[in-house]
Amino acid sequence: MSAYKLLLLPGDGIGPEISAEAEKVIAFLSQAGVAKFEIERGLVGGAAYDAHKVAISESDMALAQSADAVLLAAVGGPKWDGVPYNVRPEAGLLRLRKDLALFANLRPAICYPALADASSLKRELVDGLDIMIVRELTGGVYFGEPKEIVTLENGEKRAVDTQVYTTHEIERIGRVAFELARKRRNKVTSSEKANVMRTGYLWREVITALHKREYADVQLEHMLADALGMQLVRWPKQFDVIVTDNLFGDMLSDEAAMLTGSLGMLPSASLGAADANGKRKAMYEPCHGSAPDIAGKGIANPIAMIGSLGMAMRYSFDNAKAADAIDQAIAGVLGKGLRTIDIKGDAPSSISTSQMGDAIVAELKTVLK
Ligand code: IPM
Ligand code: MG
Predict the structure, then answer these.
(1) pLDDT above 80 (res 1)
(2) Mind listing the domains of the chain with CATH numbers?
(3) Can you tell me which residues bind NAD(+) (predicted)?
């Protein structure tokens, strides 16, 4: 069995705590002979700033480029509020996405039956929910130029961000969505603001043409992003795959995450284009942030982080056995009523970050027996 080269970037806030739990799972999978890893470690975000005054060092970028996959926990926190814009913690994350060309961000929102009561929506609306949000990750307003604050002649300031998309960028993310839909419930909802934005207009035109040309077997609908935000809380089970741009995808995926009970549950995969051997650069990270308010308390939920490792097993390492086992172990501990505080709901008590990690490893042992 060849070893998977995995770069661990724990980052900031609760990052190191939840990373430690993912490492327990890595250690267990190795020991059980289900997978073999070659682990490197690096710094990103505020942690990198404290050490090197950058959001990620060149040597850690080189490690990311040569890894089979990157597993990143979270970046940012109030401690770095005053640092220069280009070295703020988020700049490290954005550089990884851009330099590794990870244009396709997969954010599955799955509601485990055991957690349906932790959702802010009624059980019947979310029980069994299974949505895949496909967010464009290297374009749009996150990276468009100009992006600046200038001082005008009258002394007033003017800030500009630029929303920009090309045919090629829209097509390649559209393809990812249609391909995923074919393996799921065969439906894609494409979302933009074609009624207001030129980028939205082009997005709709390109997705429509791509669908007609190559994916007519998949059901396609277009939905304006504001309406989609509304439909997500009205009747989320109408969706299968949602494909949208970088900014709308950022917002809608937080909304979808919350439907599942907690932001602490959702993993994500960010993938690049396949090379000649079918390999893709990839980074896996929880959808949640660094939660500085609870950092260091040992109460963060490690499930999104461990689930992200599971996505790495599936999408980068083609190890469905390990990926399925991780998913089953997570469902198993939840089924047994084990809860971190964010998903506690009406449960009588909650467990710590490391207890949750241990419980998942224990469950893995049974699942893999
Ligand atoms: C996310 C986060 C990031 C984003 C931040 C931390 C830069 O919110 O991954 O959803 O806006 O993309
Ligand atoms: Mg976000």
Answers:
(1) no
(2) 1-103+272-369 (3.40.718.10), 104-266 (3.40.718.10)
(3) 77-90, 289-301
